[in-house]
Amino acid sequence: MYKLVFQKNMTVEKWSSFPRLQQLLMIANELNRAQNALEKGDIENAIHAWERAFELTDLTVEDKKNVRLLKELLRFREMMGENFISHDTFFNKALMNGLIQMDPAAYSAMC
What we know:
Blueprint: H1 12-16, H2 20-39, H3 43-62, H4 70-86, H5 89-100, H6 104-110
Helix pairs in contact: 2-3, 2-5, 3-4, 4-5
C-alpha cells in the first residue's frame, strides 16, 4: 500500500475494522463533497474530494472481506478516474449510485 496523503492516520488494518457499509458510505460521502463543489464551480475542492475517495477506495480494495467485490471496486475506481478528468456532475451522481448498490445495507441506508 502506498503512503496515504489525506488519511495519514488510516491503515489497512484500521480500515478493515469498519463494516463494508461504513466503508462504502464514507467513499460516497467524498463523492457527495465533490458533487457539491462541482455545483459551486469549485474544481479544486472537487479534486481534493476525489483524491480522498481514491484513497478510501484503495483501502477498501485492500480489505480482505471485500474480495467478492474486487472486480466491481476496481471498475468503480477506473470510472472515478474518468470522472476525475471530465468533472461531469451527472457521471459523479451515477458513480455514487453504483457504489451504494454494491452493498444492500448501504443501498437501504441511502433510500
